[in-house]
Amino acid sequence: MNQTTQRRADLPELRARAAAIRKHVLANLDHYLVETEKQVTAHGGQVVFAQNIDEIVSFIQLLAQERGVASLVGSRATEVRNEASALWRVVEALSSDVASYISGRIAPPIDAASFELQRLLAAGIGITGANFVIADAGAVCLAEGDDFASLAGAAPQIHIVIAGIEKIIPRTRDLAVFLRLLSARYPGHSSLLSGPRRAAELDGPEAFYLILLDGGRSAILADPEKRELLQCIRCGACLESCPVTPVGQPGALTQLLTPPHAAAPPVQATTLCGACREACPVNIDLPRALVALRQDAFGKAEGWTPSFFRAWAFVLKRPRLYEMCALMARAFWPIAWKGVQPPAKSFRQLWRERSR
Amino acid sequence: MAKRVSLFVTCMVDQLLPQAGMAMADVLERAGFDVEFREAQTCCGLPAHQAGCAAQAREVGSHFLKTFADADYIVIPSTRCADMLSRDLPRLFPDDPSARGDAQAVSTRVWEFSRFLLEVAKVDSFGARFPHRVTYFDTCPAPTHSGARDLLQRVQDLEYVEMNGPAECCGFGGNFRWNFPAAADAMTLKQVERILASKATHVVGLDVACLLQLRRALEAGNHPVQALHLAEVLASR
Lengths: 356, 237
What we know:
Chain A is an alpha/beta fold.
């Protein structure tokens, strides 16, 4: 057992607690979305609900336009498209917050010095992704690696925080559970922010927007085989545990980190060994979700695979036919297993001889 | 009256490692059980399930359920097939409450071999003797089956050694081995290096797929280390 595994094994109660909180939030998400909006508004902030990333990009562009950031709304059509697509990538990275911890492993890192963010910042607009949205406090928690520290410290006049709707946790005290699980892996620091600057405060933004992104999440919530995936707190423990990644394959787990969890080809790059399930601090049955994605992919599969499995099942439901086919298949075992010879007799042959 | 156990030897043991199934039967008989083998058995449906082919996994799974509907204890020499039957099969019938109920009922009577010995048979000694230096290869899902070490350490004259380094998958993973042969081989070699570093003469596992994957790599490298199923060690005298 290596050090990380040992440390994780020390925390079974914490993991059970974390999983229970995440499950509770997802089961009552309608309530917590309303509560979050109420509390953020009470603290002087504004909540914006977005169906997809395009809507967020439009919102930011509009805001930038109002602030007179000319380059974001360039005069030529191609410029507008390029700006939009650059901003789209930034928003996508921020909304999944994978960038802050595990960037480079699945996506190019988006650093705070990126051109788009810098230009917005110059105009007084700061954009960050939240790790947690705290319903009872109407606050957001940014558990920062180094990459976003400079942005948070820049104290923009307008602060936009982007978070998937699943990032909500009920109470501030729940951070004691989640930050411990995160910090067990990634020592860093975290900031709690709520609303714009109050009258007596020395700093803080003039306006505070929390953009809550659906982006396919409500559809995942309705799918019993994938719902659990929204419990994810983006700690990266699964990626670290995966034995496939270090041998040069982009592992299938990368498909599970960011909604809407499309079944792209890497979903085949897993042995389903279950190491990720053991590593997950919020007890997500990741192999089960990987199989669900493979089922999606299989539904669209063409070629010989569906026919193969139909024939395979036809044979395996008929024990005598199975025995006959297996006998014939023996000739192919040394080829499939590169030199491993099949034994002279099958188990059922040996068993019949033994019982005689 | 002796309790009856029903062997589900899995298609892989049936075809590729029958001696592991025979050894399992011996050990269970020595532990005082009546052992039966139902000829109608074939496969648990795992290959189709892992490929994402739910319909055919369900068909083959249903055949398993029919075959073992009235079995008290179903003992299996494979961690992955046992996992398929106890964890995954009931979920393959989301819209069929009656089949799901059957699957759930049978899933509680499914036992991976080492866990059956530890949790049901609870026999301290099997009269086994195996005068060799042996290490245990953590068979996935690893923590669920780590008790196999205890069973090995009860064998007379067996010198048990633990491997160093993190326990990881052998690289088999069903169609993974065929889809990503280079990655699979790299994973297997990593584990072979751990085995060799332990200086064990025998490596013991709980799943035929892993054992064959390891055996193939050990033979390819001309390493005189044997990959055995736990049952084969417990049945030795």
